[in-house]
């Protein structure tokens, strides 16, 4: 759709039939990450300024609410709309090496295509330890509120090891 679609064109500018045609012409891939890990990542990136506790950071996210949340912490289902868009692939962080290899093969790229080096195992252990430490800083009420805040993500995707799933 080169005439109607330029790089800066927003999908919302098309009518419904054009949107469906454009979306049908792409391979749609959604990368998902445990919402609690996304929250930790946003916290770690935000600590460049005045230092604040994780609990204080989480309370700020909860106080702002889903609609005013920054992109880094906003629930994925509100950003990616998996109920409206038929994604061809949903890829989980933590399994990128296996899943990217499969995806590249499925879209027809040569088997010898060089993949970046992933350190999933080391990163997973570090995040598990950090997650448990930061999760322990939260009150029971904050944990419940976070589970509610991310309820759509937790329902839509299989985050079986998420601390928020409990």
Automatic annotation (TrEMBL):
It comes from the Eukaryota. The keyword Isomerase does not apply. It is found in: Golgi apparatus membrane. GO terms for cellular component: Golgi membrane. Pfam families: Sulfotransfer_2. InterPro entries: Carb_sulfotrans_8-10, Sulfotransferase. Signal peptide: none annotated. Its EC number is 2.8.2.-. GO terms for biological process: carbohydrate biosynthetic process; dermatan sulfate proteoglycan metabolic process. PANTHER family: CARBOHYDRATE SULFOTRANSFERASE. This is Carbohydrate sulfotransferase. It comes from Nothocercus nigrocapillus. The lineage of its organism: Eukaryota, Metazoa, Chordata, Craniata, Vertebrata.
